[in-house]
Amino acid sequence: MELLRDLIFDYTLRNVALGSALLGVVSGVLGCFAVLRRQGLLGDALAHAALPGICIAYLLAHAKTQIVLLLGAAVAGWIATILLLQIVRHTRISEDGALGIVLSTFFAFGIVLLTFITKRSDAHQSGLDKFLFGQAAALVAEDVTTMAILGGVALAIVVLLYKEFKLLAFDAAFAASLGFNTNTLSVLLTSLIVIAVVIGLQTVGVVLMAAMLVGPAVAARQWTNRLSAMIVLAALFGALSGLAGALISVSDEGIPTGPMIILSLTAIALFSLLFAPERGLVWDAMRRRMQKAALAD
Amino acid sequence: MTLSTSFIEDRSSAATLQAKVAVANPVEINDLTVAYRDKPVLQDVDLTIPEGKLAAIIGPNGAGKSTLLKAILGLVPVVAGSVQIYGRPYAEQRRLVGYVPQRSSVDWDFPTTALDVVMMGTYGRLGWIRRPGKAERDFAMHCLDQVGMARYADRQISQLSGGQQQRVFLARALAQDAQIYLMDEPFVGVDAVTERAIVALLQTLQHQGRTVVCVHHDLDSAPDYFDWVALLNVRLIASGPFESTFTAENLRKTYGGTMKAAIEHFQHFESDRLQMMGERRGDKGTRGQGDKGTER
Questions:
Q1: I want to staple A212 with a disulfide (CB 3.0 to 4.6 A). Which of A27, A92, A102, A181 is the partner?
Q2: Which of residues 170-199 of B touch A (CB under 8 A)?
């Protein structure tokens, strides 16, 4: 109960919990489309690609205003996406290969810039390294507001274009034959994933962001056979793990929030994979064993 | 299964549709060349498909059959040539064309139901943002019923058999309420029930004056299903009414000297044809794999 009171009245905890839950909802919803389009790793590439963007934005603007840094992250993520699509289109490199190339190149470049910035004699501690693993505890009310606005826009677009995104994910060729511009839809959806990534950078960081997109979707898919229900569940699972991560991390000084969110999410996903009715592995194994026994009789 | 002959009745689009349709041939392809990188997939294809035909596109693997359908639908970049639907570019005539992609082209584990997939056929009419409502739902249900799948409306699509999945795809095309139907291998890997359902559906569509173009693999069954044929192997070998076009000479040209099995198939078919001079065959007992086993 004390925890609940803190959640409402404690400024820091409230921001951390709200921010984490928000991230969970947005990345849960967009992760569904990423996973169904077999682009689960796209989020990973985008997150890693964001790092040099953050650094360049910092160097250019000489400030660590949140919105400037996030803008840098978004631009870099977006460039990486376009690059990725071009590599797949114009070379014989497959999508996962291209993903690997873009991801590590951008990330390496980001690390170089990061090291350069932190070693610069004139620079006071930039605090940019918090983007590597996230630092949810440092979220302030202003950050949460920005996250809410960005996330709200992304979710509104998903609601508006739900029918189109569903069709794109299920049968892109058919969508194109009906006259929907699948390239535009694809770029738009990826841009929304960039938004989710940008929201997540401060909270869980570059390295763990991929799990934030894939985890809720994979867990939600286990419980339902309908896309709409899957999306709602994924949002719920995302929010729950965000909250759980925030609450667990305040219980002890030494526990970081971002990794705790991911671990909570993993717990939900693992439970879903094992015990969800119909698709759960445990029931699957039991069914097979019973069939075997029946056959042996 | 009930096959209503008037599934576009009471639709305001019907009148304008007739007006658009009257002038030209359903599909007219001029000098079409499509290439994947530097390798031509289709070369200088000239093909006109007349109104109201059940047309088969037949040829060996890699002949560009699916690509031809995709080129008609504007899904692949065209190097040269043009495609016209009733005398105008496809982009202006989308509403007149229904498409059944290959069943294997989508992930059937996608979280959705049979009815939901069929409703996707109405998305083109709905356009951007507008959601399907009760009218679309009822129409989709009606289309499912036409392929004998109404009972499975709420089934998750991965829980359907291959044939049932194929019928869902056909129902989705029916929901497009089109004048021309392009179908990519609708008979591949389906059960006998589905096969009969598809044949009945093709005939219904023809009775309604619609045109159907099917990519087809199986040389044995082709004469039973279609009355018009285009033989394709990168280039168009021959096209026209089935009887006069589906000849040994044309098939040899299509499949080449190396395609012995195809010729054997044909000889098999030829002797069948002699047999059926007097009696029109109803059912064929054995059905071969077409050229499936004779890929280059």
A1: A27
A2: 172, 176
**pTM greater than 0.80:** yes
Q: What is the pLDDT along chain A (297 residues), one digit of tens a residue?
A: 677 777 777 888 889 999 999 999 999 999 999 999 988 888 888 899 999 999 999 888 877 777 888 889 999 988 998 888 888 888 888 888 888 889 899 999 999 998 888 887 555 556 777 888 888 888 888 889 999 999 999 999 999 999 999 999 999 999 999 999 998 999 899 889 999 998 898 889 888 999 999 999 999 999 999 999 999 999 999 999 999 999 998 887 788 889 999 999 999 999 999 999 888 999 888 888 888 888 887
* Residue in B105, B107, B111 closest to A173 by CB: B105
Find, among A21, A32, A24, the residue nearest to A238 by Cα: A24
Residue type for B115, please? L
DSSP state, residue B296: -
State the nearest Cα–Cα gap between A170 and chain B, in angstroms: 6
A-to-B residue pairs, Cβ atoms closer than 8 angstroms: 74
User: Which residues of chain A neighbour B110 with C-beta distances below 8 Å?
Assistant: 36, 169-170, 227
The CA distance from A97 to A23, in Å, is 28
Residues of A in contact with B154 (CB under 8 A): none
- Check CB contact under 8 Å for A180 and B107: no
| Domain assignments of chain A as residue spans, ordered by start | 14-296
A221 CB neighbours in chain B (<8 A) are: 111
Topology of domain A14-296 in CATH is: ABC transporter involved in vitamin B12 uptake, BtuC (1.10.3470)
| B88: β partners | B85
Chain A residues with at least one Cβ partner in B under 8 Å:
36, 38, 160-164, 166-167, 169-171, 173-180, 221, 224-227, 229-230
Buried b (16+ CB within 10 A) or exposed e, B43-66: bebebebebbbbbbbbbbeebbbb
| Residues on chain A touching B107 (C-beta within 8 angstroms) | 36, 38, 170
**Cβ-based neighbours of A293, under 8 Å, separated by 6 or more:** none
* Cα–Cα–Cα angle for A71, A74, A186, rounded to 5 degrees: 145
Is A81:A198 a contact under the CB 8 Å cutoff? Answer: no
Burial class (CB in 10 A: 0-12, 13-18, 19+), A201: buried
Q: Which amino acid is at B40?
A: P
Question: Are B106 and A176 a contacting pair at CB < 8 A?
Answer: no
Tell if the CB–CB gap between A227 and B112 is shorter than 8 Å.
yes
